[in-house]
Design brief:
Layout lengths: L6 H21 L1 H12 L7 H31 L4 H8 L4 H14 L7 H10 L4 H13 L2 H11 L1 H24 L27 H36 L2 H8 L6 H9 L6 H13 L4 H13 L2 H7 L5 H25 L1
Length: about 350
């Protein structure tokens, strides 16, 4: 006889099985990777190839496990924040208060380059100030769950918190500055004439089982898109871990090189990568002698000033506003880089 389980029962059994299995696998990753390298493969410890492979074999499953768990949790959280609800929360907020709310919402609200224009149009139609909109547009891609997970897994919770706090400060401050400059005349004229429909004002009340499904779908969508970047990023990091001399990176991106922060931002701005691809590389840069401030500045420039996002935003913003946006954010990133190089 076939037994049928309700959604509530399926959710309960899934959580009872998923979480213990996840923690068991994660706990034994390190000894398993060492066993494969030292015993199963019989490689000699300390050699370039051996240590590069050890890094790769350990980091790939570790990062993917962390991504799966955290994105599952964030997916559940995001089920409470639709784009329409986000828009309504930001309506009527004063400039600075709106900047703070927008930056915080940017962390938990789904955002990618392809959704930049619909979100921008919806915010403009709702009368949300331009500076508040930019705080959201900066925080959403820069402070994302993938970056937080990778930083936590590779550097620890202190560095992850530093990243979140500094990212919020940049998003809030940059949005506030753009708002104070009153640059609305550099938004394309057709934007203010566009009416965006706001479907779903009567939001459906979801059961927790439905939110679990949101979490599972988030894992499928996000991990499915970024796993290759994770593998490629860790492969580059593994090669640098095994072969790049420490003196080289220390000279190029260390504290003693005054030009390291602006150079890292200058290099990072035109590059395109997501957090999954760039953070494993940043991990090795720090290991090889790059300072924390310089590495953070490079990472934020790459994922916070995405070239595809700039190209898409060109459809709604005139070039002077785009360049102002890049300049203000890049300056904030450099200040953070110099500050952390002085402190740490």
């Amino acid at each position: 006889m076939r037994i049928k389980f309700s959604i509530k029962e399926q959710t309960k059994y899934f959580l009872l099985i998923f979480l213990p299995v996840w923690f068991i696998i994660y706990h034994y990753l390190k000894p398993l990777s060492n066993y494969l390298i030292d015993d199963a493969f019989g490689l000699t410890a300390g050699q370039h190839l051996t240590e590069a492979l050890r890094f790769f074999i350990f980091e790939v499953p570790k990062v993917l496990l962390l991504l799966t768990l955290i994105i599952f949790g964030v997916g559940i959280l995001r089920s409470y924040f639709s784009p329409e609800k986000t828009r309504k929360i930001l309506e009527g907020k004063s400039l600075f208060t709106g900047n703070v709310f927008a930056a915080l919402l940017g962390i938990v609200t789904p955002f990618c380059s392809c959704s930049a224009i619909p979100l921008f149009l919806g915010f403009v139609e709702a009368g949300i100030p331009l500076g508040v909109t930019f705080s959201f547009l900066i925080a959403a891609p820069m402070i994302n769950e993938v970056a937080i997970v990778l930083l936590f897994g590779m550097f620890g919770w202190q560095t992850a918190i530093i990243y979140v706090v500094t990212g919020l400060i940049i998003a809030i401050t940059a949005g506030w500055i753009i708002g104070r400059l009153h640059l609305e005349h550099w938004v394309e004229g057709w934007v203010y004439e566009t009416k965006v429909g706001h479907a779903g004002l009567e939001e459906e009340k979801l059961k927790f089982g439905d939110r679990i499904q949101f979490g599972l779908q988030a894992v499928k969508d996000i991990v499915g898109k970024v796993w290759l970047y994770v593998v490629l990023g860790i492969a580059v990091g593994a090669a640098a871990h095994g072969y790049v001399p420490e003196d080289f990176m220390a000279a190029l991106m260390g504290k003693s090189a005054w030009y390291s922060v602006p150079l890292s931002v200058l290099i990072g701005v035109p590059l395109y990568s997501n957090a999954a691809g760039i953070i494993p590389i940043v991990s090795v840069l720090i290991e090889k002698g790059a300072s924390l401030g310089t590495a953070l500045a490079f990472m934020m420039a790459v994922i916070g000033l995405s070239l595809p996002e700039m190209i898409i935003l060109r459809k709604v913003l005139k070039l002077p506003l785009i360049f102002t946006f890049i300049g203000v954010v890049a300056t904030g990133i450099m200040i953070v880089g110099f500050l952390f190089n002085l402190i740490f």
